Structures are given as C-alpha cells and as structure tokens.
C-alpha cells in the first residue's frame, strides 16, 4: 500500500522553542538559529537555542519530575511508554517527512524509523520487571543477616542525539532511561532539530511534565548539560571526538557516560562467498540511501584477490543502477544528501586526500553533475564514490568519513588481512562473507568489533546487544544491558538480631 504523506506544512512542528517542565518555553537568551533543508541548502525555519540559564531551569524541572517519576508504579510507567509508541506509529509518515526535509535522508527510507522507535518504547516497557535485585548469601549465618540488592534509577539523564536519524534515536533511546525511572533531557542535533520538536508536540500530553524534555542548542547547551551537578548520566550517539569532549566535561562531576560512537567497519569477503549475495551486501552495507551516514556502514571492503575484480565491477554496476541523488521529500528518491555543508566539505576533503595518497577512483568523487541547473544545486550532495587499490596507511582506510565513500582493499594472506582489519582505533561492527562455518568462526574470534554479522550487513535486532569496543563506544544498547545502564545497584544488609 502506498504511504500517504501529509503536506509538509502540516508535518512540521508549530513550536520552535524549548520544551521542558511539560511546557514550551522561549529561550531566556532570546537566541534562535536557522535550520536548513539539506536537499536545497535553503532555510526552513528558526529554532531556539538553549543557553546556560535555560539548561538550569530545564534540569531543575527534570529533577523535580524525577522525584515523583521514580515512584510511579511499573504498570503506569509501562502504559505511558506504550501510549508513546502507539502515537509514534500513528505519525510515522509525518515524522519521516520532517526528518527528510531536515536531514536530507530520503523519506521512504525514513518511514521505518518511527516503527523502530515505537518498538523500542514497547520493548523497554516490557522489560521493566527485569529490574530486579538479588538475595545474597553472606559470610554469617542467615539467621543473623539478610543481604539483598535493589535497582534504583539514577536521576536526570542527558541524551545527545546524532544527526543521521534524529527522532528514531530520540524516541528509541529515551525509552530505556524513562522505563528505569529516570527523567530525560534530549538535545537534538544542531543540524536537524525539527523532528525532535515534533516528537515533543506528539508526546507532550502523554508523559507527566518534566519526564522528558527537548532542548535544541549548540555547544553552550551541551557544555551546560554535561557539567550540571543534577545531571547524573550523559549519553551520546555521535562521533568519537564528541564522545571524548563529553567525557572530559562529565569527569569533573564523576558522571557516568554511555557512548554509541563512530565506526570504520570492515566487510571481509572470502573466495567461497556467494558472489551475488556478496555484491548486493557490499552495496547495501554502505548505506548510500542516506549518503553513507550510518555508524554501521561497512566502509572498508576487504575482497580476496581471487574475486576482487569481478566483485568490484559488479558493485559499481549495481551502485550506478540503484542510486540517484534527489530531493529527500520525494518518495521516489533513492539517495539523499549529507546533512550539512560542513559534512559535504568534510567528505569532499576525504575524497581529495584519497586522490593525493594514490587510491584509484572507480566511480563518483564529486557533487552529482545531473543536479546542476536544478533546484537541488545548492544541496549538500556527494555522488556514491568507490576507491580501489586502497592501502592500510591511507587516510580513507583509517578514518570514519561518514559519507558515501567506499574503500576497497585487496587481500591475499588471512593473517595479514586480519592484522589490517584490526589496526585502527574503531571497533563497532564487522561483516564476514563465506560459506564455511569454520572460516566464519575463526574470523569471529579475531575481528575486533562489538557486533559481527556473518553473510549479512547493517541489520539490528532488538534484544541483541549493539555497541562498540575500542573507541567506538562504551555500553550496549537495544537490549537488557541498555536498561541496566540506567539504574544503580543498592546493597541492603539487615541485622536480624
Ligand atoms: N554507535 C552508534 O550507534 C551510532 C549511531 C549513529 C551515529 N553514530 C556516530 O555519530 C556520528 C555522526 O553524528 P553527528 O555528526 O551528529 O555527531 P556529532 O558527534 O557531531 O554530534 C552528536 C551530538 O552531540 C552533540 N554535541 C557535539 N559536541 C558536543 C559537546 N562538546 N558536548 C555535548 N554535546 C555535543 C551534537 O549537537 C549532537 O547532538 C558518527 O561518528 C557516527 O558513526 C554512532
């Protein structure tokens, strides 16, 4: 069935201020900043920017709300979360449209995001009864002492959300913290705050005031949240550099942090891989639909020399057939833009570095020529780009580009290949393509990544922990561990006589 999208004017949020304490509030500093449509580069609307005094008020409101939310019965918390999930499902098309116009990601592909966020809200509602403690044996007779543990919420949680799927991350990641009895302040990405504002409009009558807040803003807002003494945990979906900055700021008040960071993920293809499936997966793994902007993109493709040339040729053919840059709000668009001019410049900079360092440009490498003379000429597009003959020391083999740029590396010796795979500081995901289970298991044992697919790419499965090792993150999401990350354990010892 074809999706019916509302007119953009009806989908966009009518509020552009800050949402905290259950109300819309104008920024005390009076600062507003333009947000753009990355498909055209044109402004959409001005959105409030939270400053230090706004953060003070929002955190205080969230803290007051915490004092009662933590005591809210489990069944009530579950019903709040499930109602929120139902609302997101009902509004999937408009939320997809808002993110399309503000992130540059094609609207048809964004439809799934509301579903994912809603599934997460339902999932964590169902998991709340797992927040149980234990009765523990101690060193003395049980007639003398009873020892047990209880799980308690932490307090106000600040969640910083990445620019690639703003409302999916806001909606899905608020679920665990709220389910556990905390209150949450979400800071949307500067580049694309509109879907989080729409989220607040949709959920404002569902949760009690202060349980969730949306504070659009820039560095001042970020710094104020990460250093505020009443914010007890800071979580980020973002880049490694931002993760380090947040950790430094949070360290002053010894805050817990939870980090979902970048990746430079390897796809490893063995000679016995099913070639048709491999070709399709190499292309799918790059997430060209949203211009490569996915933490899990398998942007380093290790092809065994015996299949290298045929796979590369077919990958290129498939990319050229399947992806055409277009306006993100058009349901027929198969490839979106980067989220901002800064992101476009960064990606073009990496492409230039690859050329200088000697990689072989196979396709792409610039702005799409076919957009010249159209209304999209000012959009932040980059063609799907493939470099071959990439060597491990090249910048594009080592750094996360977060754009539509695939690096293909040829390999011969397995030990040398796995050494190169593991030679970088990232450790988010990895994909292994082979028909042989023993080969797959040998690689699984060696690849340094928090999440490994065998004969697949990119898929997330709710209830299966997702997260990185090395500099790609701290903690696990989309599973019970995520819920447990938002409680602390209190040990109780009762002297019985
Ligand atoms: N591991 C994952 O699950 C996952 C998922 C999606 C994206 N990512 C990563 O996110 C990055 C892309 O997203 P991005 O460009 O929005 O990332 P980013 O690091 O630039 O920004 C992420 C968020 O942090 C905020 N922020 C930036 N500096 C801050 C500071 N000093 N203090 C507090 N907040 C600050 C931003 O406003 C934004 O909301 C990529 O590295 C990508 O791999 C990771």
Automatic annotation (TrEMBL):
Pathway: Mycotoxin biosynthesis. The active site is at residue 260. SUPFAM superfamilies: ALDH-like. Keywords: Oxidoreductase. It catalyses: an aldehyde + NAD(+) + H2O = a carboxylate + NADH + 2 H(+). Residues 31-492 form the Aldehyde dehydrogenase domain. Transmembrane segments: none annotated. The keyword Cytoplasm does not apply. Gene3D superfamilies: Aldehyde Dehydrogenase, Chain A, domain 1 (3.40.605.10), Aldehyde Dehydrogenase, Chain A, domain 2 (3.40.309.10). It comes from the Eukaryota. GO terms for molecular function: aldehyde dehydrogenase (NAD+) activity. InterPro entries: Ald_DH/histidinol_DH, Ald_DH_C, Ald_DH_CS_GLU, Ald_DH_N, Aldehyde_DH_dom. Its EC number is 1.2.1.3. PANTHER family: ALDEHYDE DEHYDROGENASE-RELATED (PTHR11699). Belongs to the aldehyde dehydrogenase family. This is aldehyde dehydrogenase (NAD(+)). It comes from Penicillium angulare.
